[in-house]
Design brief:
- By secondary structure, the protein is α+β, with helices and mostly antiparallel strands.
- It contains 7 helices and 4 strands, in the order αβαβααββααα.
- The protein folds into 2 domains: 123 residues, no CATH class; 45 residues.
Length: 222
């Protein structure tokens, strides 16, 4: 005993497994909920060792052959979602590097059950990992650029709404006679014929708030 409970447990379990020749796997099953099957992911060596020891009745194996054209088309579709219509030069170069790999196994997935636990192992070729990394980097960059563009557009639209709302709130007809939102919306329609209904309503809403703030006597502190 070492006095370290964690070390002592590991040593005891390893010793017991060796004594009865039980196949010992470094890992711990994962379970999403009580209804799901516990799952553990294995490295290649552990998977082969456990199969040899436990002799499961069924093994599931998928070896995926690489299709470079399908892979680049999938990447192009992903980029198109973010407005990128032409493949970047870096991605074209990555595609050229794997173009002659057509038909080669790029990914293998294996699974089998032992004692009610699903064991899986996954491996992929280094060249395929490099290609996937290039695709992911390109798509991530396109996503970031698209998000930046959306934020810039939203900021510009918000500034336009605020500017038009200020004009509307300052118009002499804005508070004329018996006012209502619909009447102020009619004034906004007359002033800003280029705006759609949603923007006109937002301009009117913001203008009413600005008008109320002005009439309340509020002054921003300096």
């Amino acid at each position: 005993m070492t006095g370290n409970a964690a070390v002592d447990l590991a040593a005891a379990v390893r010793g017991a497994a060796e004594a009865v020749q039980t196949c010992l796997i470094d890992g711990f099953p994962e379970q999403v909920d009580r209804a799901s099957v516990p799952l553990i992911r294995l490295e290649q060596e552990d998977a082969a060792r456990l199969i040899g020891s436990a002799r499961p009745k069924a093994l599931y194996l998928v070896a995926v052959a690489f299709d470079p054209e399908e892979a680049i088309n999938d990447a192009a579709e992903a980029l198109a979602e973010f407005g990128v219509e032409k493949l970047p030069t870096s991605l074209k170069a990555a595609h050229r590097r794997v173009a002659d790999r057509a038909g080669e196994i790029c990914t293998t997935l294996a699974a089998f059950m032992v004692d009610g636990v699903m064991h899986t192992a996954v491996a992929s070729a280094d060249w395929h990992d490099a290609f996937e990394e290039a695709v992911d980097e390109t798509v991530d960059a396109a996503r970031a650029e698209a998000e930046t563009h959306v934020r810039a557009e939203a900021k510009a639209a918000s500034a336009e709404i605020a500017a038009k709302a200020a004009i509307l709130a300052a118009h002499p007809s804005f508070n004329f006679s018996r006012v209502s939102f619909e009447k102020r919306l009619t004034l906004a329609e007359a002033l800003f014929v280029d705006l759609d209904d949603l923007d006109l309503r937002e301009v009117t809403r913001v203008a009413e708030n600005l008008f109320w703030l002005e009439q309340s006597g509020f002054r921003a502190s300096t």
